[in-house]
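Page 47, continued from p. 46.
Same chain as before, 97 aa.
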Amino acid sequence: MKLADLRKLAIRRQFSVRFPLRNGMQCVVDQRGVARVPALKAIPDFDLELELAAATEFTLEPAAGKDPAVLRPVRRAELEAMTSASPSTAPVEHEED
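Result:
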């Protein structure tokens, strides 16, 4: 699973995905697909792709305005299944006229 896959999933499903970084900070990929590290105050000394590869637990949060904003913890395997089931990776069938 790459950061681009996670961004697409967050946009399609309209939720934020949070995952911890090894330095104790947290990355948030919002429903617009923007990845942010809210606690970051200077140029980062880490690579988000590598941090994502090391992450094993994630938290899903519905977009603002949706019914109860309940945080849902998910493990890496479940999130990977969600990204692989995404419509962008499904085979496209075309009908000919």
